[in-house]
Amino acid sequence: MSDALSDDGSDINQDDSQEDVIMTPAELIAKLEEAWLNEKFSPELLENKSEVVECVMEQLTHMEDNLQRVKKGDAKASVHRMEIDRIRFMLSSYLRSRLQKIEKFFPHVLEREKSRGEGDPSLLSPEEFAFAKEYYANTETYLKAVALKRMPPNLQTVDMLKAVPEPCLDSFVFLRVKERQDNILVEPETDDQREYVVDLEEGSQHLMRYRTIAPLVSSGAVQLI
Amino acid sequence: MDPSEVEFLAEKETVKIIPNFSLDKIFLIGGDLGPFNPGLPVDVPVWLALNLKQRQKCRVIPPDWMEVEKLEEMRDLERKEDTFTPVPSPYYMELTKLLLNHASDNIPKADKIRTLVKDIWDTRIAKLRLSADSFISQQEAHAKLDNLTLMEINTVRAFLLDSLNCMYKLRSNLQPSSSKGLIDY
């Protein structure tokens, strides 16, 4: 599925309908859980999984509509409600951790969005993009109103890209391997160490720098834990 | 990650219960459950098992490994080996806690099991601290962490990752060429 997405990310709607056919709801929930954990542990904002979010939302609304029709006190209904609550928790936790990262790195997120090529998959969903732009504008206005306009004229501008720290891609992450990877280069920590390669076997768990394995996270070959 | 979120993930594991009610198959989004018949064991996720148990609608059958002899064996092996031994369930600690807190009357020798699992946990965490210490002092860039569970990783995560980041910043500040990205904090 991830291959289909990266090959043809520009046409999300088409992918969407294909996925409905090939993915069971259980697999969809597993995808959401994967996206949730990856987003939680990666130092940078990952590509948005709006197709997963939309499908899950659809499932939830559908189930809730059905529950409306059930009479009160049905034993099954309460089980369904519990499941809905669990999925909803995961979904909102996922979206919330994305918003937190957008707030933390907004100039860099917008910069990446600006520089992405035509047809590349978008990092942000339309709603997130609107949020990021608004957050940027509000921060700027606030800084101006509180401090900048009282500064000497030559100091009245602030470069947000420099003022807000970048995501630290060199931080360490814990990961579990889902598809075997050979010859991953590990850079040395200090000058007197040599770089070396490791093989990541399926199912094994590792601790290493995010930068080395970032492409594997987006391709779905490893899962952050 | 909050420990309660790890527990949330553990609640997805399945456990056998013996219901005392009957109900048709339930078609949940995450898969089908049931049918439930009084006296017949059925697999359900832990979150549902605990809910039914709280409403006194079922008896929980503890997982195979939750047994005094097996755990004693595990504890002895864990103490003997220097590396981490394989655990019976990736959520052994959380499941023990959840099941013993909510369904201890269905688990024989619950107190003994609690102590044993705590012993195993303590031994493993001590090993984990030792290896985290040598990871930092030898300035390694990669570590293999097989057989560690999510909860164990989670207990050292915040502290270990933050210290590694701090050390990285301190080190890269020593080399002026690579100090880019650390200005304007």
Automatic annotation (TrEMBL), chain A:
Belongs to the GINS4/SLD5 family. Residues 1-19 have a biased composition (Acidic residues). This is DNA replication complex GINS protein SLD5. It holds the Pfam family Sld5. Keywords: Chromosome, DNA replication, Nucleus. The keyword Cell membrane does not apply. Residues 77-145 form the GINS subunit domain. Residues 167-225 form the DNA replication complex GINS protein SLD5 C-terminal domain. GO terms for biological process: DNA-templated DNA replication; double-strand break repair via break-induced replication. The keyword Zinc-finger does not apply. Required for initiation of chromosomal DNA replication. Core component of CDC45-MCM-GINS (CMG) helicase, the molecular machine that unwinds template DNA during replication, and around which the replisome is built. GO terms for cellular component: GINS complex. Signal peptide: none annotated. The lineage of its organism: Eukaryota, Metazoa, Chordata, Craniata, Vertebrata. It comes from the Eukaryota.
From TrEMBL, chain B:
It is found in: Nucleus. Residues 65-167 form the GINS subunit domain. The keyword Ion transport does not apply. It comes from the Eukaryota. GO terms for cellular component: CMG complex; GINS complex. SUPFAM superfamilies: GINS helical bundle-like, PriA/YqbF domain. The keyword Nucleus applies. One of its GO terms (biological process) is DNA replication. CDD domains: GINS_A_psf2, GINS_B_Psf2. Transmembrane segments: none annotated. Keywords: DNA replication, Nucleus. Required for correct functioning of the GINS complex, a complex that plays an essential role in the initiation of DNA replication, and progression of DNA replication forks. GINS complex is a core component of CDC45-MCM-GINS (CMG) helicase, the molecular machine that unwinds template DNA during replication, and around which the replisome is built. Belongs to the GINS2/PSF2 family. Component of the GINS complex. This is DNA replication complex GINS protein PSF2. It comes from Scomber scombrus (Atlantic mackerel).
